[in-house]
Design a protein that fits this description.
Length: 427
């Protein structure tokens, strides 16, 4: 089977799909990953074929785009910003995806770009959506994120309430997308977005743990939990020596915000430096924001881009933003989290980690002043560390690679293309 994968955005949008591509390739399938040139090196390292898609942005432009997202305080506004960023090269993007799909049999795309479904249907090929988080899976058992649950009310009232808000969220999201790119879609003979939340695709691969995350209630069968799909940088012997020398066989807190970027990084890190206890070791991963401490603090070690698995072997707890990829890595490492949410699904992941009992949430407004106290709380709560190890064992027992590959194989085998496409709607 020849599979075309595509995703755009930050590392958290790319690495899980690289992990999926690797699983498909090891199962004997031919895999092409269409994405921006920024990720070409990583895609090729994983043994996948690379296909160039716009934008041809350097790291600094992607970083600034992440800063713009961080300035917005609501997921809908962030979604609008994502589509506004894509608008200037949307037409070329459609052309390139059509070209890439012509030599492949099935298209698997990040859930953020549902209009790719129509491109696949035009070529009579199956389309699959790929989600990094389960916060957008509708169900009568719970309401959308940010909507209060009617706990204590009769079940039928709760279900009606929940579904009303899922449908309302669906309308708002569709309208938000169409306000930004609707005219351009029509120019390209593509229909406007419809049912982004309720029916994104006939199969949605949801790359999170089935055992830990799927027992939230009744959901549509189209949403298939595969288990976490992860891909890692190659490990560095030089960095291992440096970190081991710093840690001296002691596990330490690690601070990383991954590809999140925000304003006033220097001022924020100055506040962190002033409030972090003298003599207490911590590792700071610079990430896209360029986290650094200018003062001479031998107990603070800065590291750059490197494998999560390698870095987290030295961690007592990981302080992070709550991105899907980093959260999965910390869960897999069996260590506690302190999550400081910034954008998108990060508040949701923070709530899930607290539900699992493997970590704590820290609000970003005053995190530099409050971080030390949260770390002390993690140190005092043996139950959090014990629960983190239990979760690690559960994840180790899941065969996410096999689950995700079989789901796609079964879907493609049963797929029957539409007889004729005269008017297509995006589901």
């Amino acid at each position: 089977m020849r599979v075309l994968l595509t995703s755009h955005g930050s590392i958290g949008d790319i690495y899980p799909i690289i992990g999926y591509g690797k699983a498909l390739r090891e199962a004997g399938h031919q895999v092409t990953f269409a994405s921006a040139p920024l990720y070409k090196k990583e895609i090729l390292k994983a043994g996948l074929e690379y296909f160039n898609l716009p934008p041809d942005w350097g790291q600094e432009i992607f970083t600034e785009f992440m800063r713009e997202l961080d300035r917005l305080n609501h997921p809908i506004l962030q979604l609008r910003e994502i589509y506004s960023g894509a608008l200037p090269f949307l037409s070329k993007l459609v052309d390139r995806v059509e070209e890439a799909l012509a030599t492949n049999e099935v298209l698997v795309s990040s859930y953020l770009f549902p209009y790719y479904k129509v491109i696949a249907e035009r070529q009579g090929k199956p389309y699959v959506s790929f989600a990094f988080c389960h916060n957008t899976i509708p169900s009568p058992e719970y309401p959308p994120e940010l909507v209060p649950a009617l706990r204590g009310m009769p079940k039928f009232i709760q279900s009606a309430w929940n579904m009303m808000f899922w449908r309302l969220t669906n309308v708002v999201v569709d309208k938000s997308i169409n306000q930004i790119i609707g005219k351009e879609l029509i120019k390209r003979n593509l229909p406007k977005a419809r049912n982004f939340i309720m029916e994104p695709a006939e199969l949605v691969l949801t790359a999170v743990s089935r055992s830990l995350m799927s027992e939230r209630g009744k959901i549509d069968d189209r949403f298939h939990f595969t288990g976490f799909l992860r891909w890692q940088e190659e490990e560095s012997e030089e960095e291992e020596t440096r970190i081991s020398s710093f840690c001296q066989r002691e596990r330490v807190p690690i601070l990383t915000f991954g590809s999140v970027a925000f304003d006033d990084t220097h001022l924020i890190m100055s506040r962190f430096e002033r409030n972090w206890p003298k003599g207490k070791k911590i590792i700071v991963q610079t990430g896209w924001s360029g986290l650094s401490v200018e003062a001479n603090r031998p107990e603070i070690l800065e590291v750059g881009k490197m494998s999560h698995d390698q870095l987290f072997r030295h961690a007592y707890c990981v302080v992070h933003h709550g991105g899907a990829g980093t959260t999965a890595s910390v869960l897999a490492a069996g260590i506690p989290h302190i999550i400081i949410p910034h954008i998108g699904d990060q508040n949701f992941w923070g709530a899930e980690i607290e539900r699992l009992g493997t970590g704590l949430i820290l609000k970003k407004k005053r995190w530099p002043e409050n971080l030390s106290a949260k770390v002390q709380l993690i140190e005092a709560k043996h139950s959090i560390r014990e629960k983190a190890l239990e979760v690690k064992k559960i994840i180790q027992e899941e065969d996410s690679a096999t689950n995700s590959v079989k789901a796609l194989e079964n879907f493609v085998q049963q797929y029957q293309p539409a007889k004729a496409i005269t008017k297509v709607t995006i589901l």
